[in-house]
Specification:
The chain has helices at about 25-40, 45-90, 95-125, 125-135, 150-165, 200-210, 225; strands at about 145-150, 170-175, 185-190, 190-195, 220. By secondary structure, the chain is of the alpha+beta class.
Length: about 230
């Protein structure tokens, strides 16, 4: 036998009406978020932590690799630029460099030669006599009116030596020239001139050392005006 209870109108006043809450209200949404946060705050497993670590390491490595590649490319470009500058410096006209080196070698050789000649003249001042004899021997035969230009200190030595060996002094005469370097001479005749100065002889030696044209220490030069 079933039984049922019917609420009368008088009893209904003792009960309140219950309605479903509106899930769209802020309170309801906050409740749902709190429920979700509670679920999300659950501790991560070791596998999840390892996965996160590997992912972070992979991302960091990739970022570092990109930065390293960029930095490396920048260094390579800078090095290539410096190398190009060096190559350009080496490809400058070599003639310029050769001329500079040749001039420096010439200056050095001249300085050394002067020092050697000065030392030899101090030890044997009579060497100028041999220079004069060689210059006179280079003159053409039967040359007349010969003038020997010498430094005043060398003139006395040469005058004495030539006077003893030559019977006729009128065939030549000595002209003193203080501008000439001791140890050298300059000879002039009717149709010939000989430059046997110290500077000329040094230049000839240096030219041979540097591979220039070979010249004798004493070379007669014909006077073109007289030859015409």
């Amino acid at each position: 036998m079933s039984s049922s209870k019917v609420i009368s109108a008088d009893d209904s006043a003792a009960y309140e009406r219950w309605e479903l809450p509106d899930v769209r209200s802020p309170l309801a949404r906050r409740a749902r978020v709190e429920d979700m946060d509670a679920g999300a705050l659950r501790p991560l497993t070791a596998e999840q932590l390892e996965q996160i670590r590997q992912e972070a390491q992979r991302e960091g490595f990739e970022a570092g690799r990109k930065d390293g590649v960029a930095a490396g490319q920048k260094e390579v470009r800078a090095a290539a630029q410096r190398l190009n500058q060096i190559i350009n410096a080496f490809t400058l006209p070599l003639q310029e460099v050769d001329e500079q080196v040749e001039q420096e070698l010439l200056t050095l050789a001249l300085a050394i030669a002067r020092q050697i000649i000065r030392r030899e003249l101090k030890s044997d001042p009579g060497q100028v006599v041999a220079v004069v004899r060689e210059a006179l021997a280079a003159l053409p035969a039967a040359t007349r009116r010969v003038s020997i230009h010498l430094h005043p200190e060398d003139a006395a030595l040469v005058r004495e030596a030539l006077a003893a060996g030559v019977g006729e002094e009128s065939a030549w005469r000595i002209v003193e020239d203080a501008l000439l370097t001791r140890g050298g001479c300059r000879i002039s005749a009717e149709h010939s001139q000989i430059d046997a100065t110290v500077e000329k002889r040094i230049a000839a030696v240096v030219a041979q050392l540097l591979g220039g044209e070979r010249r004798t220490d004493v070379l007669p030069e014909q006077n073109q005006n007289d030859a015409q």
